[in-house]
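The freezer alarm interrupted the setup, so I double-checked each line after restarting. Inputs confirmed:
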Amino acid sequence: MAGSTRGQPVWAALALLALGSEGCVTGHLFDAALRWEQPLHYHEARIDGDRLTVEYTALVTNDRGKVLARKERRAALPLDALRRPDLAIETFPVEHLADDAPSTGRRLALAVPDGKGAASAYLEIETAPDGQEKSFVLHDLGGRPYAPFYSTALTQTSTAPWVYPLLPLGAAVDVATFPVLLAFLPVVLLIGD
Amino acid sequence: MRGSRGGVFRRILPVLGFVFGCATGPIPPAQDRAPFRFPADTFAFANQTVLEYEIDPVTRDVSSHPREKTPEFALRCGAMARAARQFYSVARFDPSAPAVDAQSYERLVQEVLETNPRRPPQQRVVIPGYHNLRDLSEAHASLVQALLAGPWETYLQRGNWRMIFPFPLEQQQQVAGQLLDELARGWPPIVHVLRFPDVTIDHLVLVFDAEQTPAEIRFHVYDPNDADHQLELVFDRGARLFSYSATAFFPGGPVKAYEVYNGWFY
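Predicted 3D structure, all chains:
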């Protein structure tokens, strides 16, 4: 009895370590359930007050790059931010809009880089060889010029819901196997190259 | 005096320095070293895959079957990536010096391969008669292949333990920054690219340059399986995801990446 009581903190510590290190099984389950949404094609753009709203088709992919679905998405981008070439992708202030949000504002033409179809205000879109529209530049008469906007700034990640019921099982396996992995680590380090 | 604390401390200091120095010590800046060049600083031959791969052009699914003839030089991606960096950092090629006999080249190559693969060396090994590794390994392919370690060096690469654990997006972002830092120091990082538990790719490559755009970082890569083309490991800053070029065995697409031959644990 006393022995098992003394062992409890050790097991608790190992369990915490296993889960804290995003255990092997749990972590890979989460990886497999991770989804990326990235713009494929823009089909509408509007200037709405001090922001640009874009509507686009997004590709939903998994961590192996397999396309799982296409979704129609909308986002708003502040015009001030679009004028700043120094703004990093990771910090660009994107507001993802609800799918049923009303479309308001002045509609813009969408043009390819050769300028065909360009109006006084338009979105010049650059397409990558794989067909994905990788970036655009907003052209509008008057005011300061705009910097290129890179579509990857619109990336959204989510986790597929099927993973959650599997978590208790994954955590149990991790807690059971983590001490074994921990024991093997010094062996790997010693015999490794 | 022999038993004094100071004496004991002085004796264990080198051991502590070795253990912790290797683990966390900064890599000395590159001295008198030109940037890594492709193909000059790479091997003239390629590591062969044991299996032959077919990639469906539409679905990008990969199937494989054994080659008709077992390849003689295979499963050496780790040994080759490691050796390419050792030659880059240790060897100084002197084409104006007269060539020496095969036995001398064997000794010189061995000398290069015995240096610490995790840190730039203090000494240089002069290799006469050739302009670069490409020339040397073309002229002495069998000799160099025989000296490169066998598949076990790749299987038992110390950092392999890391592959079974997941790679969160934040961690991949850190890896991208770490690779840029290493390149800025003139130390081309060796990277394990993988999709564990999927085994579509489980490979070691050498990163030797990078181009940055606001959207991505394009790392230029020497892939030991391809002697003729430099490949790319691209980090998408928005998705925080690495992608590897299409090759004869991999359809191209997202991978996980981490640096190996780096510090005590990798």
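Quick read of the result. Confidence is low (pLDDT under 50) at residues 1-27 of chain B.
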